[in-house]
Amino acid sequence: MRCPFCGNEDTKVLDSRQVEEGTTVRRRRECDRCMRRFTTFETFEDSPLVVVKKDGRRDVFSRSKMMAGMLRACEKRPISMEQIEETAYSIEKTLRNKHEREVTSAEVGEAVLEQLFGLDEVAYIRFASVYRQFGDIQRFLEELHELIEKRETITYKDK
Fold it and tell me: How far is 34 from 62, CA to CA, in rounded Å?
């Protein structure tokens, strides 16, 4: 592995561990020349999952893009980066387990909303406001009422 700092090709592995349910190997490495440490991740190459956008364009699914949206929604909320990463991994796993080569952006958005609902209601509303493109305050209030009803239904079932 080439050192990202000095370009040296001689690096040593200090630590390896499996992450994301064993589908990825995280390696902590050290450069033999500059002695700086860095982390690499090895993942198996899977067939690409394609996201079909509203306008018909197709893009390869990117967990990092999805996480970026989730991070914006979770900003300044009591949600750890680990929780966001685990949630993103769970969403990707669910989408891939459908065994379809293509998913719609609506399926991705709804999966994110479903997970955010259980994680943090404020993050849910933030994500929904962008994803569902609230045009006015009335649409925002409708979403809040749906959230309250959903929460009450879940609370009622738990009792």
Answer: 33
Contacts of 40 (CB under 8 A, 6+ apart): 1, 26, 27, 29
Q: Please, are residues 69 and 127 in contact by the beta-carbon 8 Å criterion?
A: yes
Residue 45 tokens read as 């190459």
Q: In this predicted structure, what is the pLDDT of residue 25?
A: 94
- Specify whether the CB–CB gap between 77 and 121 falls below 8 A: no
Enumerate the domain spans of the chain. 11-43, 50-158
CA 141, 109, 119, 82 torsion-angle sign: negative
Query: Going by C-beta distance under 8 Å and a sequence separation of 6 or more, which residues neighbour residue 82?
Result: none
Are the C-beta atoms of 36 and 46 separated by less than 8 Å? no
Query: Mean pLDDT per 10-residue run, the chain (159 residues)?
Result: 94 92 89 96 83 96 96 96 94 92 95 94 92 86 88 71
CB within 8 A of 7, min separation 6: which ones? none
Which residues, 6 or more positions from 13, have their beta carbon under 8 angstroms from its beta carbon? 27, 28, 29
DSSP 44-59: ---PPPEEEPTTS-EE
